[in-house]
Predict the 3D structure of the following.
Amino acid sequence: MAVTGAGSGIGRALALELSRRGALLALADIDMARVRETREMCSTSDDVEVFQVDVRDHDSVAAFASDTIERFGHCDVLIANAGVLHVGSVESTSYSEFDDVMAINYFGTVNCVKAFLPHLRATGRAARIATISSAVGLVGMPEHAAYSASKFAVRGFAESLRAELADTNIAVTAVYPGGIRTSIARTALLAASVDRDEVVERFENRVARTDADTAAGVVLAGVEAGRGRVLIGADAWLAEIAARLAGPHFDRIVKAVARMA
C-alpha cells in the first residue's frame, strides 16, 4: 500500500492503522524527518519503507512508484493524501499562491494516480485508489477560494477516473473530510493579509471536530468496501446536504447552522 502525506495528520493515522493490520507500506512525504517518525511509530518498521517525495514533481512521484514496486513487488492500494490548506480572499491571494495550491492538491493527486495506475492494473487482483478532497470540495467557502478550487478539481478528477475504471480491477474512492484535528492550519499557506494565529485558533477550536484516528478508520472502511464517496464528520455531511438541497443558496444553510452552533 502506498500513502502520500504520511508524515502527519490523516496520512500518519492511516499509516499507523494499516501497520496494525499488517500491511506492507510505502510511505511518502516531502518532509523526510516526519515520515521517518511515522515509520518508527508503526507496529513493525520492517514492513515499512519511507520515501521523500514532492508530489508536484513528475519525476519524484514516478520514482516513488517504481521504488515501491522494486521494494515490495506489487502495489494494490494508493491513498493520494498529500495536500496543503490555503486561507485568503481571492483579492489578497497572489497568482503564485493559486499555482502552488493547485500544484500540490490537484496536480499532486494526478501525478500520483498516473504513476501508480499501471502497477495497480498489473496486480490482477482487486485494487484501490483513494483521493482526498474536502468538505469545501463540495461547497465553496469564503476566504478559501484557492483551496476549495483545488479540492473541487480533485473531486472532478476522482469521479471521472471512477467512471473510466468501472469495468477494471480498480475501485476509486473519493474522500471528503470535514474539520479534522491535525496540524493542517499550522502548516497552511496564507495570503499576506491573513493572521496565522487567528487561523489556527479558529480551526482548532471551532472547526476541527473529528480526530485523525477516527478519520483514518472511516477512510479505510470506505476503501475496503470500494465505496465511491466517503464523507468524514458532521460538517462534511452538512456540506453534502446543503449542496444537494439548496443548490446555489447552500451558503444560507451553512450560515444558519453556524449561528445555531
Remarks:
- The mean pLDDT is 94.
- Residues 81 and 120 are 17 Å apart (CA to CA).
